[in-house]
Amino acid sequence: MSVNYEQLAADGLEQIGATTSRSQLDQVAQQAAAASWSYSHFLGRLLEPELAARRQRVIDICLNFSGLPWKKRLSDFDFSFQPSIDHALVEELATGRFMSEGRNIIFQGPPGVGKTHLAIALGLACSEQGHRILFITALDLVRRMKTAFTQNRMPHYMKMLTTPKLLIVDEVGYLGLDTQQASLLFQVICIRYEKQLSTIITSNKAFSEWGHVFAGDPIMASAALDRLLHRATVINIKGDSYRMREKRLAGLFPGSVALDPQPKGPLPSKSKPPRR
Questions:
Q1: Which stretch of DSSP H or E encloses residue 65?
Q2: pLDDT, tens digit, for every residue of 149-168?
Q3: Fewer CB within a 10 Å sphere, N or C end of the chain?
């Protein structure tokens, strides 16, 4: 009778797709018998690897869908080089709690200060929590939307942009958009705002310059900012470019010399002039 139920358990796990638990059923059952586990202990131990495997599959799907150009984490970011950034605030954002409130995050600052790195790191952290995200540059977004519009696939593409729990739009403002492009980007912002879905934006433009972003239309720019900033955390990065720092250290600028970023040893003391 026991053998019949063991086979039934194996067949049942197979039928419900619990393949990881099925592969470990005999081993866990022997451990349970040897250690006199309770029924709930045995069941929990049997399901633990199955749940872990399923969670990993969800994470893998989220990462494959995300469009992240590379994996960069907060641990890779040099916060000491950008002291204007509140490290504790960014770590809090990495918990993903901002998404439950439908809050947006806007990184502002000149090129090379780490805006994209931080956006990717937050997106990666949210993906690894099992949230569906999408990363795309602003110009790529509007280019694809125009293609979808000409191919009569606009509803499908808009759904793709407004379904993810988190949308990351990188490099907003590096190049001005034409009227149609600006209108399409504005639609994405409006729909996500109404659905209370979070958006991360990186931009080198101050809010006062967003009229340039939206085809020189200050009314559209104001309406977009009204929705983005209603529930938003704005991080304004004021610092030097990482890329420029590396070039200066390597002595690549005319008249510059290669510098050691971390000088070793004490500084030489100035010799006192001899007394006369």
A1: helix 39-66
A2: 889 998 999 999 999 999 99
A3: C
